Task: structure prediction
Amino acid sequence: HVMHDLQILGGLYGFTGDLGLIDGLAGLQTDGWVVPEDAWLLALLTPLSEGARAENAARFDWPKRLITTAALAADLTQAGPQAADETALHRLGPAGRALVAAASADMKRRVQAFEEGTGRQRVRGQDLLELGLKPGPLVGRILNRIADARQRGECVTYEDERRFAQRLIEAEASRNTDAAGP
Result:
């Protein structure tokens, strides 16, 4: 805040935006959140216009991923918690999620649910049946394999889980066709 008040951030770095996200990140830290270092820079980049962000990135050679994350965070904070679906939150990464959590209490709750896994949609038995699997013990085995893949970080989003399930179902169908023989 001192650098902002003295207009150093604006003069040297072109950061002229509101420091509300900085305050929000400080509040998260006070609440015990681990705030990634990049989140602080994102808090300065996100309020800038797209053009100012691009100019700042070129001037200071910021990594492209930071600029992309700042743009995603800006869109998400403007759209609100209803737009904070699993895919969007995953794409933001830890620093971006901390930043959008700092934007509002509703967004903080949404990010917490995502981080805890309670806000994530999961593939369920009904999804497997919709993908063409017949009811039976294979449904449970595939759900267990999906859970294992989720734990290993191979399946992060619902879409990942569905693709993985589809591959498992196709592999099972191929195995059964091969076993049946000519």
Remarks:
- The two ends are 76 Å apart (CA to CA).
